[in-house]
Amino acid sequence: MAIEVAINHRTSYTYDRLVTLSPHIIRLRPAPHCRTSVSSYALRIQPSTHFLNWQQDPHGNYLARTVFPERTRQLTVEVDLVAELTVINPFDFFLEPSAEEFPFSYEKWLAKDLRPYLKKGRKGRRLRKFVESIDLTPRRTVDFLFDLNHRVSQHIDYVIRMKPGVQTSEQTLKRRSGSCRDSAWLLAQTLRRLGLASRFVSGYLIQLVPDQKPIEGPEGPQTDFTDLHASGPRSPCPVPAGSAWTPPRACLRRRAICQSWATASTAPSRPRTSASPWAASRPSSRSTTWTAASGTTMRSVRPSGRCQSGCFAACSPRSAPARYSISDRGNSIRASLVTKMGGDGGHLLSPPLSDAVAQLRRRETREELAAVEYQMESPLAPRGTAFTRFADTVLLPDRSLLEGTTALMELLYRQFEYDPVATTVSTPVADVLDGRRGVCQDFAPLMIACLRSRGVPARYVSGYLVPRPGIVGGQASHAWVSAYCPGVGGVDFDPTNNVIPSNGHITLAWGRDFEDVSPFKGVTVGGGNHTVSVHVQLSAAEGDLP
């Protein structure tokens, strides 16, 4: 039986005078790909006069972007959530045969995708010696990772470090001590220097007193507690000294844990301020039904969360469907959802193309670093001189990036003809460029190939399209493009219909190209010929479609 824990996390900043708060990015909502089930979540922000927009970054993490129009003396962010703690086997995975023993090398196509997670920090003598001292004798990969994690844990003493930021690996090795985030970063940098892609993870670490003491081994914590924690080689993470800690209150199947910090300061508040990340879909009250042949694995269908194949769903928490269900009826699978759609996002200003590309090369923010994945070519959206030449007439160096991208969308719309029988899912995008005919699944990767060839990050978006006069592609799932602009975030473009998606597009998932977001994937053994039919019907849950 799962244990439910209620977490209250309160952060408060008090200022000695009225201050102006810039837009804040708050990352305090469990990610959709979190393995722990979160049954309820609430975010409260003071001052009450503020504007809140939910977004998702390129990694699929939830972001609360908050704008404060008035001056204030206090900023308070309070989170309440209920999580179900169940036993999860950390070794419930399998490795490809080529990766069962370390050392091993990634395949070329995979190494390109993992490049952001292989980026090394500053070089240093201590880190170099630490890496050189690691035993690289060939052995099982899981054993190697376990041993390395244990070694970092033994080599670095845990300390409570309340200062912001992360120590460099050199600082951690010199002091031989650090917080959980310092040890995690040291382990990540060590793994990257050994050729293993690694990423930094943060979240809540919950430790509960066991109902019965173990016969052997460590007894575990003496009291229930929780703490913000960074995935690293050390666990558990003790309660920060000096924190305002409220003892837990237990009841039958639920344990309540409260954690809060209160700070009085004239310095800027801690929640990170940055450019808005890739835009999420803006939903409105609509109903959708999708029927497909049974015996197929359904992927990327639910418009929230992250599918197991690695593609990211684009709907933000405020656009999550009000109702969603999947039913298996004989020889068909039926998926139904009711979602909400809002108004236009408008057209945003952007820097010139040359300045935007130069900014992306510097990779000064996490969003810009994450966008690197969508600058690289992918199997169905490669880069090449043919795409560069086609886009050169509109993507001019001194022209606004978003203005040029809009012109590229219009160029594709004018010069290409919508023809459902001209191509198949396997038609190369280069053939689409030559033939000037196709459907949305052709025009979207072509536009992506053009943008990537000019250094602009772009991703493939899959979803539903509300049928309207003059709009094509609503009879099946639709595809469009999201381009990343530094300082602005992600802006969607639909080259099939020459529109900026707003309240007529319902996002299901995004990825590098169609292979990342294919709604269905599976293998059928036996049988002869077969046919596939896809039909999408959108009807108003209440009232008429706009």
The largest sheet is: 5 strands, mixed
**Average predicted confidence as pLDDT:** 76
Overall shape: it is globular
Assign a percent range to the helix content. 10-25%
What does this structure look like?
The protein is α+β, with helices and mostly antiparallel strands and 546 residues long. Helix 2 (125-132) crosses helix 4, helix 8 (385-391) packs across helix 11 (440-453) and helix 10 (429-435) packs across helix 11 (440-453). It contains twelve helices and 26 strands. The protein starts with a strand and ends in a 7-residue tail after the last strand. It has three domains: 1-92 and 244-273, Immunoglobulin-like (Sandwich); 97-241, no CATH class; 353-521, Roll (C8orf32 fold). The protein has a five-stranded mixed beta sheet with strand order 3-6-1-14-13, with no helix packed on it. The protein has a four-stranded antiparallel beta sheet with strand order 17-18-15-26, with no helix packed on it. A four-stranded antiparallel beta sheet has the order 23-22-21-24. It is globular and about 70 Å long. Strand 22 (478-485) and strand 23 form a beta hairpin.
Write the layout of secondary structure elements.
Layout lengths: L2 E17 L4 E3 L10 E10 L4 E6 L5 E6 L4 E14 L15 E2 L5 H6 L11 H8 L6 E2 H15 L1 E2 L10 H7 L1 E2 L1 H14 L8 E6 L17 E6 L13 E8 L2 E11 L18 E11 L3 E2 L24 E7 L2 E10 L11 H10 L3 H6 L13 H7 L9 H15 L1 E2 L10 H7 L1 E2 L1 H14 L4 E8 L12 E8 L3 E5 L11 E7 L2 H4 L2 E2 L14 E4 L7
Parallel strand pairs: 1-14, 9-10, 19-20
Antiparallel strand pairs: 1-6, 2-5, 3-6, 4-5, 7-8, 11-12, 13-14, 15-18, 15-26, 16-25, 17-18, 21-22, 21-24, 22-23
